[in-house]
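Issue: copy button drops trailing tokens. Both records pasted manually instead:
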Amino acid sequence: MPLHIDALGACNNEFGATVTGLNVADTTQRDIQDIEAAIDRYAVLIFPDQQIDDAEQFAFSNKFGCMEKATGDINQNEDRRLALDINDISNLDKNGAVLQRDNRARLFGLGNMLWHSDSSFKTIPAKYSLLSARVVPEAGGNTEFADMRAAWNALSPEQQDECKELICEHSQLYSRGALGFEDFTAEERVKWAPVLQPLVRQHPTTKASSLFLSSHIGTILDWPVPEARLFIRDLTEHATQDNYVFAHEWKRWDLVMWDNRVTMHRARRYDHTQPRDLHRTTVSSETRLLDS
């Protein structure tokens, strides 16, 4: 069956597409090239009805570059439910039971409901994320995506000039702290010490500029913290207006792939007593964005 790529019609019709006629567990090199061309254009790709396991998801993801380990998850070692190659985007414990409302891992995971770019808190941030829906709640739990290319293009030349040379500090300590979550161990505070990222980045293939925003941003280098956070909040409000955003309503076995270099995303609320189980593989960017 030939591969079909159909634009969602979201935003400017260049944001988001559905890919059909493909089994991601059995792809050719030509398929991978077509997918890479499509994600360069649309930034978010939806592959419906991909009944895959973690090994098949990892193998498909690995065709797009070097893979990250799930070191950003709060549960590590014996507390993990999934292998270290797979980010656990769920409300389940290692035995598969739904987490209690005040569970530490659940409260940490609420940070996924803030606008963010995956792994921006790592020195080398994420390139692609691939999220597979294994169990979805009856209602809610959508994922929203925002087009950072369109948001950048809509800024005035004066606003763009103000942003171009700015360097931001990113850390999960900041994003979770914004929700009042401060329950970090000393080891976690060292592990997630802030890293520096540019506020504006250029896509290595398309050469398109985009904002590099995330809830992980805590301040701007050499700016007073209150002014920096207000500036980032204003930019985020601009970048997440309805005309730059679309929501994906999950169905079981959807696989969604997005380019973190030109998007932000966030999960939406759902009934926390119902299981929601999504598995994420993450392709790393080729290089760090700033010199040492």
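Record 2 (pasted manually too):
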Amino acid sequence: MKCESGMLDGRYPYILAGKGERLALVLPGSEEILFGIRKFSWMFLRFYVPIFPPGYRVLIVGYGDIPEGKTAIDIAINIGKAIKGRFSPDVVLGLSFGGLVTLALGVVKPRLVKGLIIASAAHEMSAGGLDMITDWMRRSRKGVSRALFYSFIDLFKRKRYAFWMKVGITIAWPIFKARINPSTYLVRAYEPTLAIRDKVREFLPAIGKPALVLGGTDDQLFPESGYRVLARLLPHGVLELVEGETHTALFERQDECKRRIAGFLERILPETGSDSARRD
């Protein structure tokens, strides 16, 4: 698949692929923080481009080396500024950590897009999810390890798939380890955002754009109740839960999630053709 790649403001890596008049902005999850979209562009293109209907180009923006102390709100402000004047997205999809950045983007750059898709993310975590994130940060401070990646893979529901992913990482570990980002990137991403997690609820009513809240009912990080409350707190929230799926529902049940995303996009962007109006 042909794609364009580069840096926004010299800080945020991006790849752009697909054809069409509509433009979808994707803010990935923790996988981008460790892998980097430009080093593993094939993986991100394979995961994210098929999620959107025909007629969409997909702009995937990464986070680079997040400065210490910068929260999801800071990242949203900076990415919004970097995009302004260069790209005019119609919709933004944020997955997991990217979902929190997307919520912040809906507040600090309300005219940037016409709709938000919050996938596998909510304003509150389960007790088990918080313990899991804390464990990931503990492991990350010690450096990259196979055990850390195995923990990520355990989020997948389909254990046979997870088994073969672990086998692949084990076999190719020396090459794999040399190419990924330092694990401390995860700490710098998670820690500041976790510190303000109790304040996220306060700004949700300020998000005035249609927002699809999409997740699995058995998500290990975010409880089903969190998804339901988030959809209620958003003034124009739409809830879509995939029964029995986990934090990786967007990947493991891609066809089902794609169908629900397409329905949401049809409601908020019913006509083809780009909006040429200037947005913040």
